[in-house]
C-alpha cells in the first residue's frame, strides 16, 4: 500500500486491547516471546495495524522499527484487515498461463483495491497466492472456503452475485 495507514480505519475495541495486554503480560519475560505475541495479536485483531504494533512496542520496550520489520518480513502477518469475504487468486504457473493475471487485474478494478488490501466497507479483501494444488481447474480463485475454477473474466459478475 505504501503508507502505514490503511484505507479501513482502525477499529480496535477495549476488549481486544485488554486481551492483547494480557498476552503481553503473560509472555513479557519469556525469551523469544515477540513472535508468539505478534501471532496472538493477529489472532485477536485479524491483522497487525500500526496501532497494535505500537502497543506491543511500548509494552515490550522493543523499538517499533524492529516490530514493523518482523511484521513486513513474514508473510503470515498482515498490515491490512481481511474482508468478510477473502478473495485469493492463484498466480502459480498453471493458473497464470491460463489467464489468472487477467482475472486478478479485473478483480482489482472491480473492487478498487490492490493486492493485500481490503475494500473500505470491509466486505472484500484481495490477495494473490501461489499454487493451491488445483492446477487441473486453472485458473482458480477462492472466496473464503469456496473454490472457483476454469474461470474467465466474464464469470466474475456471476460469482460476485452470491456475495452481495
UniProtKB/TrEMBL annotation:
Molecular function in Gene Ontology: 2 iron, 2 sulfur cluster binding; metal ion binding; oxidoreductase activity
Keywords for this protein: 2Fe-2S, Iron, Iron-sulfur, Metal-binding
Highest taxon of source: Bacteria
Record-listed [2Fe-2S] cluster binding positions: 90, 95, 131, 135
Gene3D superfamilies recorded: Glutaredoxin (3.40.30.10), NADH-quinone oxidoreductase subunit E (1.10.10.1590)
Cofactor note: Binds 1 [2Fe-2S] cluster.
Cofactor: [2Fe-2S] cluster
InterPro entries in alphabetical order: NADP_DH_HndA-like, NuoE-like, NuoE_dom, NuoE_N, Thioredoxin-like_sf
Pfam families noted in UniProt: 2Fe-2S_thioredx
Family the UniProt entry places it in: Belongs to the complex I 24 kDa subunit family.
Descriptive protein name: NAD(P)H-dependent oxidoreductase subunit E
Lineage, uppermost ranks: Bacteria, Bacillati, Bacillota, Clostridia, Lachnospirales
Amino acid at each position: 500500500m505504501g503508507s502505514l495507514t490503511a484505507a479501513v480505519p482502525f477499529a480496535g475495541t477495549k476488549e481486544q486491547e485488554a486481551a492483547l495486554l494480557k498476552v503481553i503480560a503473560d509472555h513479557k519475560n519469556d525469551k523469544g516471546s515477540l513472535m508468539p505475541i505478534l501471532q496472538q495479536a493477529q489472532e485477536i485483531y485479524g491483522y497487525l495495524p500500526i496501532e497494535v504494533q505500537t502497543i506491543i512496542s511500548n509494552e515490550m520496550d522493543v523499538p517499533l522499527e524492529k516490530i514493523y520489520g518482523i511484521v513486513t518480513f513474514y508473510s503470515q502477518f498482515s498490515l491490512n484487515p481481511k474482508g468478510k469475504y477473502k478473495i485469493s487468486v492463484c498466480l502459480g504457473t498453471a493458473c497464470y498461463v491460463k489467464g489468472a493475471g487477467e482475472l486478478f487485474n479485473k478483480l482489482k478494478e472491480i473492487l478498487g483495491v490492490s493486492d493485500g488490501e481490503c475494500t473500505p466497507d470491509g466486505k472484500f479483501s484481495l490477495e494473490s497466492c501461489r499454487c493451491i494444488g488445483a492446477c487441473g481447474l486453472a485458473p482458480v480463485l477462492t472466496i473464503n472456503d469456496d473454490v472457483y475454477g476454469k474461470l474467465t473474466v466474464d464469470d466474475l459478475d456471476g460469482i460476485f452475485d452470491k456475495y452481495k
